[in-house]
Amino acid sequence: KKLIETFQKQEQDSEQQKEILQHLQVALKEKEEEILSLRKQCEACKEKERKHEAEQKNLQAIKLALKEREKKIWVLEEAISELQQQKEEAAMQTKAVLQRPEYSETSLEARDQDRVSLQEHVQDLQEQELESKQDLEMSQIL
């Protein structure tokens, strides 16, 4: 009788252990699935991180390129400003050079007019002198 009780107890224990084992197997399977899911999530996060790092590098490269372009634009703007200033100076110099001949022409014209005027005056004086001489000669004859 004791042997049967022991055997029944062992059988009961064995059944309990089977149930526990089944529960543990189910729990193990759930944990394995959870681990697999977490690994997939981890891999997805790593991929996102790699993409983020690549985007950051790309962004840095773009920022650097923009800085270079801004620097080139600044240099070109400075060059344009300098060329504009040189253009204005050249225009002023050209205007000054062009005004000189006008001034010289005006000055020469004024001198020519003065000379003509003086020649006319000299001619008038010569005519007056001639008339005076003729008058003097006439008066001496008379």
UniProtKB/TrEMBL annotation:
Location of the region described as Disordered in the Swiss-Prot/TrEMBL record: 95-116
- Origin: domain of life: Eukaryota
Q: What is this protein called?
A: Centrosomal protein 250
Q: Which organism is it from?
A: Hypotaenidia okinawae
